[in-house]
Amino acid sequence: MVITGKHILHSAFYLAVTLLCVAIYFVLLRAEYLAAVQILVYIGSVVVLILFALMLTRTKVGDETNISNNQKIFAALISIILFVSLSMVFYYSRINVVAENASSLKIVSIKEFANILFSKYTLPFEVASVLLLAALVGSVVLAMKEKESSKDADIARNDDTDSIEKNDFKEGDK
User: Fold this and answer.
1) Domain range list for the chain
2) Considering only CA atoms, which of 60, 79, 108 is closest in space to residue 3?
3) What pTM, to 2 d.p., does this model score?
4) In degrees rounded to 5, what are phi and psi of residue 53?
5) What count of Cα atoms within 13 Å lies in the side-chain half-sphere of residue 5?
6) Dihedral in degrees, nearest 10, Cα atoms 55, 57, 63, 67
7) How big is the CA angle at 27 (ends 23 and 29), to the nearest 5 degrees?
8) Do residues 4 and 19 make contact, with C-beta atoms less than 8 angstroms apart?
9) Secondary structure of the chain: what % helix, strand, coil (to 5)?
10) Which CATH entry fits the domain spanning 8-173: 1.10.3470, 3.30.70, 1.25.40, 1.20.120?
11) Which one of 25, 51, 54, 98 has the lowest number of neighbouring Cβ atoms within 10 Å?
């Protein structure tokens, strides 16, 4: 529904629902911290940023938008090929690898995981935050340019109607 939706705002909301389902999978896998991060970062930040970008750039939303393209057959073919190849990989791989090595897995606490996450992997989080900030600033700049260009078009349109009215008045005097 995210890709095939006709309304771009509906697609953004479908993306939020999809990301929420991923968070539910994390809860089912007993990874509550990752579920919380999924909800906070992706639904709370990325989807909201997409919605702000759509609203600030005055993107056409609703029935008048046509976001479909002519590549549906090509996309379906690639999807089928990907599904078949991944199915073959899963079928021919050794499925019991995780079960054999499960006793050697080290279970870390959330505190240890957070220490690793915010010490060793701080740079990727900072890069992601700068990228999101740049996207937000870019959408504001685009919205301001469109607003200025629409003001210029309104002024030009008003000048044209004023000159037409003046010409009509002059011709009426003769």
Assistant:
1) 8-173
2) 79
3) 0.47
4) -65, -40
5) 14
6) -120
7) 115
8) no
9) 80, 0, 20
10) 1.20.120
11) 98
